[in-house]
């Protein structure tokens, strides 16, 4: 079966609960005072709960079964007891209400912070990470897994404290009321602890398995919905339905295993509680008949016994939440531990603008160990020079750009800008100096103005003036509302060529010293290519331009052309020089030219070609 992009590479499933709790509690540290208030409120709730059986005992022994007192005294005593009983119930209700409010605020605040931290970390991790992770799994981390921890923060952490405190106090009270009966209860404590520990270990494994399968479901849904056009085009609905049914069935089976585990644990705790109460009723009833124990004490004892085993009966439900949350916490922390692309703060980086010659010196690089992509690449791009890099698909053209932008680091060799190694420059200042126009680009669901300006801080007047100077206003004039036209989902759809014009306008806003055109004109028509000519030739004529192209009609303007083949430089020179040599470049041009002869309109730039 396919894994649908779900990988657990580097994921340590044996992370101790102690380590997980240590990290989880760090998120509680900023809220330690409100959390302490919640704990104090839990003491009030526990005290009011445990006070009710004691008041019941007092009412029975002192007033109901006490013939020594007059009826008026017994009635007055019962009235006082009933009032105190009501006060305790009201106090417990108010304390529980305030506790819920405080814990919900703490939980929502922690979830907000954790979700923000996760999203911010995702924006900073290295690009190599995303090549191994499906979108569905990452979305699950930020949404489902974070939400899965919510209830643990809001109620479980304090209610578990409440339950443990209640059980300890009940055990102490029972030993105080009658050591013999309390001793009987102590027999069940280690048995209950053993069952709980065994249950916890098995439950955690089940929840890890369930969360993995849920992530596979999410990944498959995301993969299918994003490619729904191809699904309908190739009529793969039935096939995908069957695959989803298999994934869904596996999720059902894993969930049923968890339910069976809980179904075993709950009857065991019920059985222990029933046996304990039966023994107490038999032994305590005999003690009451022998007058070694009052009726009120026996009833209070039985009430405390019920309260003692109640947390154990509820533990299966609470433990399912805890273990599910811990399984999610492991995944969240694993993602947060993924190496980010942040600069090493211990190594100083130059933040000033840097421009000059670009030098690739003996660059070797591989995405996977033992599978080199670039082999000893060396060349220089002079400041103000236009250089094109061409080659067949997979020759390493885009890899050079990734290294120049420091998305990846070379295995060996160095890249220098203005005489300074790229490693000595901060990534933010380096990328501000480089404007990239790619074939694929992100369109925000916002106005054209916001899509162009982004974070450049340019005013509307500046953007309009910029478009006029570059003659890109012809592009905006064709849109229904000009710069106010809403793009993206639910807005105006624009063509591939118009996207390229938008990308050029974005780059112009930032005045970079280096322009990179990465397959920027491979999917546009001749008319749009004409619109690109003016901004490229007039706005970047004094800047360094690097053109990565598969479509060779776009590289003839270059001062120099570098030909890559299987990660090695095979030729360098101008368009005419390389044609005269009759090498790889000449064959690539011939193939490109022949493809247009077979029916595609010939671009203007190629009509002047000497071949």
In short:
With 611 residues, this protein is of the alpha/beta class. It has helices at 17-28, 32-64, 71-122, 127-130, 135-148, 150-177, 179-226, 228-233, 237-289, 295-336, 397-404, 427-432, 448-453, 460-469, 473-477, 496-510, 526-539, 575-581, 584-597, 604-607; strands at 358-368, 371-381, 386-391, 412-417, 420-421, 434-438, 514-518, 544-549, 560-565, 568-573.
Report on the structure:
- The chain has 611 residues and is of the alpha/beta class.
- Helix content is 62%, strand content 10%.
- It has 20 helices and 10 strands.
- The strands form 2 sheets. Strands 6-7-8-3-9-10 form a 6-stranded mixed sheet, with helices on both faces.
- It is elongated.
- It has helices at residues 17-28, 32-64, 71-122, 127-130, 135-148, 150-177, 179-226, 228-233, 237-289, 295-336, 397-404, 427-432, 448-453, 460-469, 473-477, 496-510, 526-539, 575-581, 584-597, 604-607; strands at 358-368, 371-381, 386-391, 412-417, 420-421, 434-438, 514-518, 544-549, 560-565, 568-573.
- A hairpin with a 2-residue loop joins strand 1 and strand 2.
- The relative contact order is 0.08.
- The two termini are 52 Å apart.
């Amino acid at each position: 079966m396919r894994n649908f992009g779900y990988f657990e590479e580097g994921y340590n499933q044996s992370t101790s609960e102690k380590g997980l709790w240590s990290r989880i509690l760090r998120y509680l540290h900023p809220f330690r005072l409100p959390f302490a208030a919640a704990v104090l409120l839990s003491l009030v709730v526990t005290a009011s709960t445990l006070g009710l059986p004691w008041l019941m005992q007092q009412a029975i022994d002192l007033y109901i079964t006490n013939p020594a007192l007059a009826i008026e005294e017994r009635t007055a005593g019962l009235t006082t007891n009933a009032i105190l009983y009501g006060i305790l119930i009201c106090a417990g209700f108010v304390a529980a209400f305030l506790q819920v409010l405080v814990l919900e605020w703490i939980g929502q605040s922690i979830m907000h912070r954790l979700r923000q931290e996760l999203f911010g970390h995702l924006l900073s991790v290295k690009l190599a990470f995303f090549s191994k992770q499906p979108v569905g799994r990452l979305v699950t981390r930020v949404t489902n897994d974070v939400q899965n921890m919510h209830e643990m923060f809001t109620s479980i952490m304090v209610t578990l404290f409440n339950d443990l405190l209640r059980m300890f106090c009940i055990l102490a009270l029972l030993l105080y009321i009658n050591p013999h009966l309390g001793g009987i209860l102590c027999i069940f404590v280690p048995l209950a602890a053993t069952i709980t520990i065994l249950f916890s270990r098995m439950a955690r494994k089940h929840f890890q398995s369930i969360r993995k399968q849920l992530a596979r479901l999410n990944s498959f849904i995301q993969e299918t919905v994003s490619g729904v056009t191809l699904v309908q085009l190739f009529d793969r609905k039935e096939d995908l339905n069957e695959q989803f049914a298999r994934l869904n069935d596996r999720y059902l089976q894993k969930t049923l295993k968890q339910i069976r585990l809980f179904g075993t644990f709950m009857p065991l705790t019920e059985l222990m509680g029933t046996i304990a109460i039966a023994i107490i009723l038999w032994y305590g009833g005999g003690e009451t008949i022998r007058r070694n124990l009052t009726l009120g004490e026996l009833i209070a004892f039985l009430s405390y016994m019920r309260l003692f085993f109640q947390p154990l009966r509820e533990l299966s439900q609470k433990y399912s939440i805890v273990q599910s949350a811990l399984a999610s916490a492991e995944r969240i922390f694993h993602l947060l531990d993924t190496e980010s692309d942040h600069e090493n703060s211990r190594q100083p980086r130059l933040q000033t603008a840097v421009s000059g010659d670009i030098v690739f010196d003996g660059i070797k690089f591989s995405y996977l160990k033992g599978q080199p992509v670039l082999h000893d690449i060396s060349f220089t791009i002079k400041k103000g020079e236009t250089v094109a890099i061409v080659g067949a698909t997979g020759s390493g053209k885009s890899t050079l750009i990734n290294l120049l932008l420091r998305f990846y680091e070379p295995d060996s060799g160095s890249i220098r800008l203005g005489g300074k190694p790229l490693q000595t420059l901060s990534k933010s200042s380096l990328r501000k100096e480089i404007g990239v126009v790619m074939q694929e680009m992100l369109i925000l669901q916002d106005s054209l103005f916001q899509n162009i300006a982004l974070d450049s801080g340019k005013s509307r007047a500046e953007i309009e003036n910029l478009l006029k100077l570059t003659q890109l206003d012809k592009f905006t004039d064709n849109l229904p509302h000009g710069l106010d036209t809403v793009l993206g989902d639910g807005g105006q759809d624009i063509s591939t060529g118009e996207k390229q014009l938008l990308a050029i306008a974005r780059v112009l806003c930032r005045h970079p010293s280096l322009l990179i055109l990465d397959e920027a004109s491979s999917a546009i028509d001749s008319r749009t290519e004409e619109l690109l000519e003016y901004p490229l030739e007039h706005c970047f004529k004094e800047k360094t331009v690097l053109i990565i192209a598969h479509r060779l009609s776009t590289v003839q303007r270059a001062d120099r052309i570098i030909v890559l083949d299987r990660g090695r430089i095979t030729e360098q020179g101008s368009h005419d020089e390389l044609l005269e040599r009759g090498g790889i470049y000449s064959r690539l041009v011939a193939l490109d030219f022949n493809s247009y002869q077979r029916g595609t309109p010939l671009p203007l730039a190629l009509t002047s070609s000497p071949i």
